[in-house]
């Protein structure tokens, strides 16, 4: 990871490559994760959980998603060169070695572990399978027809860890939110997979967009509906005030907007839908946070 190993690049240039590796300038990938985690944190705490837990989960989400990018790009380096969107990734082009990327991912994972160690041991325990699923996910695209479902498992551990950190347990509410956000991941990551469908078919990669075929758009909308329904069901015992329902309405309106973006299945429309999907999470979190603040 030193500049000496790459005499043609300076330290600042290598740092820029590492930022590219973790998609630092493309924050949509970690924003879609942080908002559902914050919803879970507020729900578990019955309101504002304190700045310590907020910082732990915001930074931890960013760090683990960044580590996941390293792992994903190492696993997919031979496939990415055949996909338009990914052909210029640092590992694929040889600008960053596999060893460098692995070391970056390891450092990010250890930093995330250090954060969760400042919470309860139950949260630390749930972090172990979260890391394992993150490592395994990229390899499921070789054999599993719906790898986005596996991604949903990996991505949604933040919801379970949030409840474990606050309550020392993972109650039914947490599992319902986990299932809701599994559907959300299936929706937005299928949109993402639709962007690369032509390239993925050529190289034999398996994705939900390929598996669902002509039912892709209908399935995405169904995932959105189930996500919203399960989220409302999960939080019903909290009897949240009117801002929550306003947030639900805004989220539902955005889901309808997504339909207008993806129904023609254009690369541009599908990518826009994915890149803006975190705003659904923003709406739901704002509704929860404002309802508790009243």
Automatic annotation (TrEMBL):
- Keywords, sorted A to Z: Cell inner membrane, Cell membrane, Magnesium, Membrane, Transferase, Transmembrane, Transmembrane helix, Ubiquinone biosynthesis
In terms of InterPro entries, this protein maps to: HB_polyprenyltransferase-like, Prenyltransferase, UbiA_prenyltransferase, UbiA_prenylTrfase_CS, UbiA_sf
User: Where is it located?
Assistant: Cell inner membrane; Membrane
- Catalyzes what? all-trans-octaprenyl diphosphate + 4-hydroxybenzoate = 4-hydroxy-3-(all-trans-octaprenyl)benzoate + diphosphate
The EC number(s) given in the record are 2.5.1.39
PROSITE patterns recorded: UBIA
Q: What cofactors does this protein use?
A: Mg(2+)
Where's it mainly located?
membrane
Q: Name one GO molecular function term.
A: 4-hydroxybenzoate polyprenyltransferase activity
Query: Which family does the UniProt entry place this protein in?
Result: Belongs to the UbiA prenyltransferase family.
Record protein name field: 4-hydroxybenzoate octaprenyltransferase
- Which species expresses this protein natively? Comamonas squillarum
């Amino acid at each position: 990871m030193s500049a000496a190993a790459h005499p043609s690049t300076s330290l600042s240039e290598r740092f820029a490559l590492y930022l590219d590796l973790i998609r630092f300038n493309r924050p949509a990938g970690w924003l879609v994760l942080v908002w559902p985690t914050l919803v879970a944190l507020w729900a578990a705490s019955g309101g504002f959980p304190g700045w310590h837990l907020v910082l732990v989960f915001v930074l931890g989400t960013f760090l683990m998603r960044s580590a996941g990018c390293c792992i994903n790009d190492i696993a997919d380096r031979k496939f990415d060169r055949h996909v338009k969107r990914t052909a210029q990734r640092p590992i694929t082009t040889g600008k960053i070695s596999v060893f460098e990327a692995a070391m970056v991912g390891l450092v990010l994972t250890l930093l995330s572990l250090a954060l969760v160690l400042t919470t309860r041991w139950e949260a630390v325990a749930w972090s172990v399978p979260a890391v394992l699923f993150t490592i395994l996910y990229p390899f499921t695209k070789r054999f599993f027809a719906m790898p986005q479902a596996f991604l949903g498992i990996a991505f949604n551990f933040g919801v379970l860890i949030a409840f474990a950190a606050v309550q020392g347990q993972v109650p039914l509410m947490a599992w319902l939110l986990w299932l809701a956000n599994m559907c959300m991941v299936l929706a937005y990551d299928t949109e993402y997979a639709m962007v690369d469908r032509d390239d993925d078919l050529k190289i034999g990669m398996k994705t939900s967009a390929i598996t669902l075929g002509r039912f892709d758009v209908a399935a995405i909308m169904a995932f959105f509906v189930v996500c919203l329904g399960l989220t409302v069901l999960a939080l019903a015992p909290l009897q949240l005030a009117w801002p929550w329902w306003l947030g639900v309405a805004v989220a539902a309106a955005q889901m309808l907007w997504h339909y207008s973006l993806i129904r023609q299945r254009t690369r541009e429309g599908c990518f826009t839908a994915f890149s803006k999907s975190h705003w659904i999470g923003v709406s739901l979190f704002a509704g929860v946070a404002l309802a508790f603040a009243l």
